[in-house]
Amino acid sequence: MLHNGNPLAESLVILEYIDETWKHNPIFPKDPYERARARFWAKFIDEKLWPVVRKALGSKEEKEQREAIGETHEHLETLESELKEKKFFGGESWGYLDIAAMVIIWLGIAQEALGVEFIPKEKFPRLHKWQQRLVEDAVFKECVPPREKLGAFFKARFGSSAASK
């Protein structure tokens, strides 16, 4: 990100900067404890979930991919239990943690594009409901490329992996 001539890197850092710069539309919870929890879960997604998702998507060997998908499911189960019955990770409206968790949205699109069940609906019903609420949101639709373009990207990028076989 480049703002006022100042470059910033790393998506989670950029989200914190956005929250602190444009205070009229906060993306972090107001409560300090809830902010800390959001940061914890964003770090979990960034350091635990995202690496195994990349491994599952890019694996050339079926066994390695199955193991990575198994690990992905373990992390998704943890997030599913954190979501509980909330509409979004942040509660009634989406925010920082929902943005950090968008890797789950991309995983659903990759699943469609590559024909591999990374995130089965029956195993993760809360995450599927969360995904649906997010993709139906007008602001989300404005900010994210069309699903077809993302699907084409996944096919082009990962089409030769074990996922496509």
UniProtKB/TrEMBL annotation:
Xref: SUPFAM superfamilies: GST C-terminal domain-like (SSF47616)
CDD domains for this protein: GST_C_Tau (cd03185)
All residue ranges annotated as the GST N-terminal domain in the record: 1-26
Domain GST C-terminal, chain residue ranges per copy: 31-158
Catalytic reactions on record: RX + glutathione = an S-substituted glutathione + a halide anion + H(+)
InterPro entries recorded: Glutathione-S-Trfase_C-like, Glutathione-S-Trfase_C_sf, Glutathione_S-Trfase, Glutathione_S-Trfase_N, GST_C, GST_C_Tau, Omega/Tau-like
Domain of life: Eukaryota
Protein's UniProt name: Glutathione S-transferase
Organism: Vitis vinifera (Grape)
